[in-house]
Amino acid sequence: MGRAEERVSSIKFLMKKMKLSAEDAMRVLDIPPAEFGKYISLL
After folding, report:
1. Distance (Å, rounded) from C-alpha 4 to C-alpha 19?
2. pTM for this model (two decimals)
3. The pLDDT of residue 1
């Protein structure tokens, strides 16, 4: 599994378990805001 796939998996996990929005989950994971669009498109 590549890094992007691992991050998407982590984002989905946080969204489900902690009821976070995709953006909030990415902030928790310290993903740079400039990359948010990339990961949102993979969700």
Report:
1. 21
2. 0.90
3. 67
